[in-house]
Amino acid sequence: MPVPVPPPARDAASPPLPRATARADDPRAAARELRAALGEELELVVVFCSPRFPRDALAAALAESFAGTPVIGCTTAGEITPAGYADGTLTGIGFPRCDFSIVTERIDGLAGFEVSDSPRIMRALMDKRDRALAARPLEAKGCFAMLLVDGMSLREELVVSALHSVLVDVPLFGGSAGDDLRFERTFVLHDGRFHEDAGVIALFTSARRFKVFRTEHFLPTEGKMVVTGADPLRRIVTEINAEPAGREYARLVGLDGERLTPMIFASHPVVVRVGGQYHVRSIQKVNEDESLTFFCAIDEGIVLTVAEGIDPVESFRSLMARLHEEIGAPDLVLGCECILRRLEMEQRQLSRAMSGLFGANRVVGFSAYGEQYNGMHTNHTFTGVAIGAR
Description:
Elements: E1 19-22, H1 27-38, E2 42-49, H2 55-65, E3 71-75, E4 79-81, E5 84-86, E6 90-96, E7 100-107, H3 118-135, E8 142-149, H4 156-167, E9 172-176, E10 188-190, E11 193-195, E12 199-206, E13 210-215, E14 218-231, E15 236-240, E16 243-244, H5 245-252, H6 262-267, E17 270-274, E18 277-281, E19 283-286, E20 292-294, E21 303-309, H7 312-327, E22 332-338, H8 339-347, H9 351-360, E23 363-368, E24 371-373, E25 376-378, E26 382-387
Parallel strand pairs: 2-3, 8-9, 22-23
Antiparallel strand pairs: 1-6, 2-6, 3-10, 4-5, 4-23, 7-12, 8-12, 9-24, 10-11, 13-26, 14-15, 14-21, 15-16, 15-20, 17-18, 17-21, 19-20, 22-26, 24-25
Helix pairs in contact: 1-2, 3-4
């Protein structure tokens, strides 16, 4: 069994990174509650908010409460709070100026995004970083990037691969905004407003040790399926093995004739081999014509492999032990967890155990409609950054 992770060591030069959750119904009350808990002298605040909040009122309340401090974030399909899984909250993290220099750039009009746009976006971001560090030097351990993106844009693959190709050696993680499994409209928060068809990239220069990571808890089996009909732009697979996609998928995972639900997709994902590694390709829903809508683009001719799960709780314990070895006990783990992982935890009655692990290891984040790791858009994963003491 992995070595348990002790709590982070504290010293005067390394205050704990503030994390907090507000549960008030009124947006102004929730924003004030979060502001009081996160404290002063912050370089950036990152928030993850339930879609139950009225967006315009919440954006205005956050801008008022954190006047002078940039706030970014997104809507969610559930939050990971300091106490573990939750719904209906406003959850936030503060990044102190003494340890971080952070700049952000919004990417508007994702529907028209082109690969050629990425150098311009990254030049603007790098210029902001250089000016910020010239004005306030920081004894840096390195840089990492976080991408928050509209989860209904269907553009994550293109955006993350294009941006990471320009970032080169800067590790990147991120998540796709959610709307509590309605799959209608999702938003990112930047510059005092919620934005649709947009993304926000933040570049962190850190005086603390950190590690960007990705983890999943599935292994490939011998079961194979070939995509013989697909609409990649809409992420729809119409045929598998020349049969209606939903019907053939159900047969291959041993559920022939059963009604396909999000819980089934959460427990029976498929994986694709890319660059010598397997990556999960999760299914969002089955459509009336028995086609399947995925969380990632799937093209004709791709060979999908049925995946088999391992214990997600033990897998997460192992991840925390590895992070502890690399950077010491994390003071914060900022994570983007696929909503299907969370549904699987609920189905397997593991939510309480996982929430306990999150709380013990200072994990805060949100349930996402997809995750980003370096140049890949992934599913059914947990991506994030672990930040240690200074």
